[in-house]
Amino acid sequence: MHRILVVEDTPAFAEALERTLALEGHHVLLATRAQEALARAAHEPPDLVVLDLGLPDRDGFHVLRELRGRGNECPVLILSARSLESDKVEGFRLGADDYVTKPFGALELLARISALLRRAQRSAAATAVSLTSRPAGAGSLRPLADDELRERFGLTDRQITVAWQIAEGCTNAEIASRLGLSFYTVRNHTEQLMGKLGVSNRSAVARVLHAPV
């Protein structure tokens, strides 16, 4: 059973999400405001967050920014009526893992949630293996900030967004779907950013995006 925090202020949507996720065997936490969501995430750390952007006190971007700022790296799926590309790009820039626009299909939403949970489990397992195999005295790593990526490698904002998606293990098709771009546009961005980073394969992108602490 996974603990999923649903941040949604529209009662009909919140109830439908809670019912759908509960039927799949998940334990659902509900929050209708940004501050409530952050408090619940702090006291009952979720395995995944389903996040609406239009909240009554602060928008969902504030919640996402605060979660990542506090070191919470659980998957976040934005579920919003906002369909502008700029909103999607901002969500991914702040650390969202997926973006679904309303209205949505329940089966697609469940499939996306399952995929995110599987990816998080694989990532946790890989991290555990990496830590146990790291040589004694080896330092830890930190993700480079957007400004550092611009200055060091000359990446554009779009290339930075695509680079982090690649680092998560996303394919070009998945990135295109997330950002609302064509497959060929994403492929072009990928080729350009890999050239700027000086890497020859996708698996090397994640290593370049992190620096020793």
How would you characterize the overall build of this protein?
With 213 residues, the chain is an alpha/beta fold. It has two domains: 3-123, Rossmann fold (3-Layer(aba) Sandwich), CATH 3.40.50; 135-212, Winged helix-like DNA-binding domain superfamily/Winged helix DNA-binding domain (Arc Repressor Mutant, subunit A, Orthogonal Bundle). The chain contains ten helices and seven strands. It has helices at 11-23, 34-43, 60-69, 85-94, 106-133, 146-153, 157-167, 172-179, 183-197, 205-208; strands at 3-7, 27-31, 48-51, 76-80, 98-101, 141-143, 210-212. It has a five-stranded parallel sheet, with helices on both faces. The protein has a two-stranded antiparallel ribbon with strand order 6-7. Helix 7 crosses helix 9 and helix 8 (172-179) crosses helix 9 (183-197). The longest helix is centred in the middle third of the chain and has 28 residues, at 106-133. The model is unreliable at 126-132 (pLDDT under 50).
The strand count comes to 7
Low-pLDDT runs: 126-132
| Main sheet: strand order | 2-1-3-4-5
Query: Domains counted in the coordinates: how many?
Result: 2
Instruction: Enter the CATH topology name of the largest domain.
Output: Rossmann fold
- The assigned structural class equals alpha/beta
